[in-house]
């Protein structure tokens, strides 16, 4: 875990220096990337700086262990919900109507159109998203993995074995982007939620699912009767940096980003990863 956080902090430093995320192919023009903090804000500067401010905040509720529903089916829990609470504790803002849960497509659209001020849902800072929203420092990073059904022997041992296979991905995710760009020889089945992608693989309707490593591990760990397993090593590492997304219409980017950076530096994100992902 210590190695993961060191890598994340190195990526975060690069974001600050270059104004782009890990694996970005953008130019140095910052107009399509996250806003840059004009001056370093200290903990004293940001503590309570958003007292009296109300923000509209969104998440997915569909991606454990980062954002999902508790056993009651109503209470949102996970890494990102704790992260949002920590940001509230530092900055002092209120949330308009509570954290709103929606699928990734609606979430990113709402952020792009300014209907939400902030989103935390294991959102990857992709080049395409940077054109329509801003991103904080990287608080977690993961690669993708291949999941298969143990009952179906398709000879899939790694991502290199997906040629000619039917592969399910969740729409708008880093896995979807990777598969679209790199698996032209495979048949993609694009799902609105990762839940239905898992179901499709459980039922043998597809040969594999590509998913972020923590999400795949969480599903297998929390689904006792699952037939799914991860094969091969993580790939596409450094291309799925999780960041807090901030609408370009939101004028509190500097404060939110500084608070995320503080949570990284004081070990809070390390503690959240240990709590939710290990």
From TrEMBL:
Record PANTHER family: GLUTAMINE-BINDING PERIPLASMIC PROTEIN (PTHR35936:SF38), MEMBRANE-BOUND LYTIC MUREIN TRANSGLYCOSYLASE F (PTHR35936)
Protein name: Transporter substrate-binding domain-containing protein
Limits of the Solute-binding protein family 3/N-terminal domain: 54-278
One Pfam short name: SBP_bac_3
Chain intervals with Basic and acidic residues compositional bias: 36-45
Keyword Calcium among record annotations: no
PROSITE patterns: PROKAR_LIPOPROTEIN (PS51257)
Domain Ionotropic glutamate receptor C-terminal: 54-278
Source taxon at top rank: Bacteria
Key words, A-Z: Signal
